[in-house]
Amino acid sequence: MELRCEIIRILNECSLIDSESYERRYRTRDGNPLVPGHYVVLWDEAAAAPEFDENATYVGPYKSSVTARMMLFDFLRSLPVQEAVTGNGDSRAQAMV
User: Fold this and answer.
1) Higher pLDDT, 10 or 96
2) Contact, 24 vs 15, CB < 8 A?
3) Fewest CB atoms less than 10 Å from the CB: which of 3, 31, 58, 95?
4) Whole-model pTM above 0.85?
């Protein structure tokens, strides 16, 4: 399973700042707004293109981007080797941090 992930910052009930410093709109599965803060956003391989919509999983909030980054690295480190690395040694987790 390929995992895509990114660190973002929620500004208000419908806007976020992505890893490239662009302001974007977001949606959650349940339609509820997220509390302002930093989040790790995860997408599975079924997501054709990473969008900040109901296909994204938002993990957080964290007080800072540093804390969110540490949590992401801990999560990636906990993945079984088969899930974290392909046969050719390339990381399968595409992180934008």
Assistant:
1) 10
2) yes
3) 31
4) no
